[in-house]
Amino acid sequence: MKVTIGDGMAATATGMPLPFTPRFDFRDLQLIVAGYADPAGRERELPETFGSMRWLWSEDDYVRFDRDSRELRSLTFFVPARYVSEAPDHGPRTRAAGLRADAVVEFGMPPATVFHCDAEARALSCLADARLLGREADARLGVAPDVDLLVHEGAVAGWRLRDPARYLTDGFAEPPSGPPAPATRLRLAECLALVSSPLVDEVMDAGPEAWQRLRAAERALRGQREDRARADVLHGVISRLIEDYGDGPSFLT
Fold first, then answer.
1. In what order do the strands lie in the sheet with 62-66?
2. Which of 181, 215, 249, 252 stands the most exposed, by the fewest C-beta atoms within 10 Å?
3. How much of the chain, in percent, has pLDDT values that exceed 70?
């Protein structure tokens, strides 16, 4: 199967997905699938790879291929700022696959523009264009554990992370072992909505309903006894949001 990636990079699907455990860094809202464990490791990988990355003034996702084998080496996808309530149609069953670039060339990989996460955080889906929401994906390529690339008309047009709460972490740290608590999944879905448009805009404008939701999420995370490591990741981001925008509407203080 041939696919186009970004602004014109051609690649062939292979039978070798990435073996790395995904890391869903909630602080910077990025999904990291790579063998390195810190920013320095990412920098060391660059001379050995080619593909897309964030250059000055660009907001590209990272899709890096090995220079010798041309096999997919690592991914970093950024969660877009806009939440949509409509769930995408993911299309056919996931096919486990790696990617091999047809040529050693640099390319641009614009990030997704919209995302959806259901109320139980069963999946986080990010699409390049909101117009794809009503269309079924042509293919889903499982390029890493629980990570799919969504293909529309032969081009990679989004990505999906199943059970994102399982992979919650801060920065490049390994996620906690074991499955997340049901409460963590619920809190993650709520927090994703709170840190994205349109709800975060209401927080910044001191909208009372948005602030009530924000404070309720903070209290629930602060009081959660189980799955504390993941709850702490979420609580840290929500607490900073409250600190950054003050106390909200005066009648709520």
1. 49-52, 62-66, 72-78, 30-33, 23-25, 168-169
2. 252
3. 97
